[in-house]
Design brief:
Layout lengths: L2 E6 L7 H16 L3 E6 L5 H12 L5 H8 L1 H16 L4 E4 L6 E3 L8 E4 L2 H8 L3 E5 L2 E4 L4 E3 L5 H12 L3 E6 L20 E3 H9 L7 H10 L3 E5 L7 E4 L12 E5 L2 E10 L4 H11 L4 E6 L6 E9 H18 L3 E5 L2 E7 L9 H11 L6 E5 L2 E7 L3 H14 L6
Parallel strand pairs: 1-2, 1-9, 2-6, 3-6, 4-7, 9-11, 10-12
Antiparallel strand pairs: 4-5, 7-8, 11-12, 13-18, 14-16, 14-17, 15-16, 18-20, 19-20
This protein binds aspartic acid (ASP) and magnesium ion.
Aspartic acid (ASP) binds next to helix 6.
Length: about 400
C-alpha cells in the first residue's frame, strides 16, 4: 500500500471551512488506497500572534518559553483536522511532536531534527488510522518542547517522509507550485513543472518562500520525492527531484529575490590574519547564519568587511560586530537594512558561459548599482538597493526567461 505524507500550510487550514476542505482531500487519498500521514502548520496568522504576545512581555523572550508558547498553534490545528476527519467517518489520531516523538537538539526556536521514532506512527497506520502530526515542533533529549524555525512544518513533513520511507511528500500550499519568479511581481512568471533539489535549495535560500530550505536539504539527503501543489485544486504542482541530464539544458530556471537581509560593514579593520576568524567565530557561536561575505582589497593596511544576515539576527550581529571591533580596532560598524538580494538560478550554468555578463548588463541597462556579488556553481546573486528589487526581478525575468528561454 503506498504511503503518502501530506503537509498542509497555514492558509490551507486557515479557517474551519478550509479545514473541512483539507479533510476531504485527505479522505480522497485514503479512499484511493493510500496510507496517509498528515502534517499541519498552525492556522494562518496564529504563529505571528503568539510571537507578538511574547514580545509584549519581553524584548528578547526566553527561547525555551517562546517555544512552549508558539508550538501551541500546531496543536490546535491537528486537533481540528482530526475532528474534521472523524466527521467524515475517517479513522484518525492526532499526535504532537513529543508524542511521536520527534527528537531534536536543544537549540530553542531553531532546533534541528536528530531522530524520529516511527514506532507509534507505524502502529497507528497498521490500525488503519490517518496519523495527523503537528509540524514545526519536536522535543529535545532533555524533554523540552522545541520548534524548528519559521516555516519549519515543511521540514517536519519531509523528515517524516524520509523516516517512514514514504512514496511521496506532498506539500499543500496556497500557491500552485514553484514559479520562475514571484508571480505577484512578474506577470509572465510560469509554474516550473520539475526542479532539482539543488536548484530548489538555491531558490529557497534566495527568498522563494515556497518551502523552508532545510526541508529541501532533507529531501535531497534522503531522496524524498516532493510535490509542491495547491490545496485549493487538484492540479499538478512542481516536483522536486534528483537532477538529470535533461535539466542541464535550461541555463536559468528561475529568478528569486530576498528582502529579509541586512548588511553589516566593519569599516577600516586592520588587514591581518585572524580578524575574519574572530568575527565569524563570534557570530557562529551565537548561531547566526551569515550569507554573503565581502572583503575589499586593503588600502594602507586596512580593509572593509561586509556580511549579510537575516534581519531577525541583525541587532545581535551588529552588537557582536561592535564588540569585535573594540578588540581588533576599526573605524566603526555600519548597517543597512534597505537592501535586496536578486539571484538567477539554474543547473545549466555549470556548462554554459556568459550568464554573469548577461545579468550585469541587464541590471546596468536599468541603472541599477551592484553592492556585492556572490556565486555558486548554479547561481549568481547581486546585492542591490531595496527600492530596485521589483524592477530587477522583472528585468532579469525578461532577459533570461521570457526572451531567452533560459539560453544565454
Ligand atoms: N507555524 C509555523 C510558522 O508560521 C511553522 C510553519 O507554518 O511551517 O512559521
Ligand atoms: Mg510555509
Amino acid at each position: 500500500m503506498p504511503l503518502v505524507v501530506q503537509k498542509y500550510g497555514g492558509t490551507s487550514v486557515g479557517s474551519i471551512e478550509r479545514i473541512r476542505n483539507v479533510a476531504k482531500k485527505i479522505k480522497k487519498a485514503v479512499d484511493e488506497g493510500n496510507k496517509v500521514v498528515v502534517v499541519s502548520s498552525a492556522m494562518t496568522g496564529e504563529t505571528d500572534r503568539l510571537i507578538a504576545l511574547t514580545k509584549e512581555l519581553s524584548n528578547r523572550p526566553d527561547p525555551r518559553e517562546q517555544d512552549m508558547i508558539v508550538s501551541t498553534g500546531e496543536q490546535v490545528a491537528i486537533g481540528l483536522v482530526a475532528l474534521a476527519l472523524k466527521e467524515l467517518g475517517v479513522n484518525t489520531i492526532s499526535l504532537t511532536g513529543w508524542q511521536v516523538p520527534i527528537i531534536t537538539d536543544n537549540v530553542h526556536t531553531k532546533a534541528r531534527i536528530k531522530k524520529i521514532d516511527k514506532h507509534r506512527i507505524m502502529k497507528h497506520l497498521d490500525e488503519g488510522k490517518v496519523v495527523v502530526i503537528a509540524g514545526f515542533q519536536g522535543i529535545s533529549e532533555g524533554g523540552d518542547i522545541t520548534t524548528l524555525g519559521r516555516g519549519g512544518s515543511d521540514t517536519s513533513a519531509v523528515a517524516l517522509a524520509a523516516a517512514l520511507n514514504a512514496d511521496v511528500c506532498e506539500i499543500y500550499t496556497d500557491v500552485p507550485g514553484v514559479f520562475t519568479a514571484d508571480p505577484r511581481i512578474v506577470e509572465n512568471a510560469k509554474k516550473i513543472p520539475v526542479i532539482s533539489y539543488e536548484e530548489m535549495m538555491e531558490m529557497a535560500s534566495l527568498g522563494s518562500k515556497v518551502m523552508q530550505i532545510r526541508s529541501v536539504e532533507f529531501g535531497a539527503k534522503y531522496g524524498v520525492k516532493i510535490h509542491v501543489r495547491s490545496s485549493f485544486n487538484d492540479e499538478e504542482g512542481t516536483w522536486i527531484v534528483e537532477e538529470n541530464e535533461e535539466m542541464e539544458k535550461v541555463v536559468v530556471r528561475g529568478i528569486s529575490h530576498e528582502l529579509k537581509e541586512s548588511r553589516i560593514t566593519l569599516v577600516r579593520v586592520p588587514d591581518k590574519p585572524g580578524v575574519a576568524a574572530k568575527l565569524f567565530r563570534a557570530l557562529g557561536d551565537r548561531n547566526i547564519v551569515v550569507d554573503m561575505i565581502v572583503q575589499n582589497v586593503s588600502h594602507e593596511g586596512h580593509t572593509d568587511i561586509s556580511f549579510t544576515v537575516n534581519k531577525v539576527d541583525a541587532d545581535l550581529a551588529e552588537e557582536i560586530a561592535k564588540k569585535v571591533i573594540a578588540e581588533i580596532g576599526a573605524a566603526g560598524v555600519e548597517r543597512n537594512d534597505k537592501i535586496a538580494k536578486i539571484s538567477v538560478v539554474g543547473l545549466g550554468m555549470k556548462t554554459h558561459a556568459g550568464t554573469a555578463a548577461k545579468m550585469f548588463e541587464a541590471l546596468y541597462k536599468e541603472g541599477i548599482n551592484i553592492y556585492a556579488i556572490s556565486t555558486s556553481e548554479i547561481k549568481i546573486s547581486c546585492l542591490i538597493d531595496e527600492k530596485y528589487a521589483e524592477l530587477a526581478v522583472r528585468t532579469l525575468h525578461e532577459a533570461f526567461i521570457e526572451n531567452g528561454e533560459g539560453e544565454v
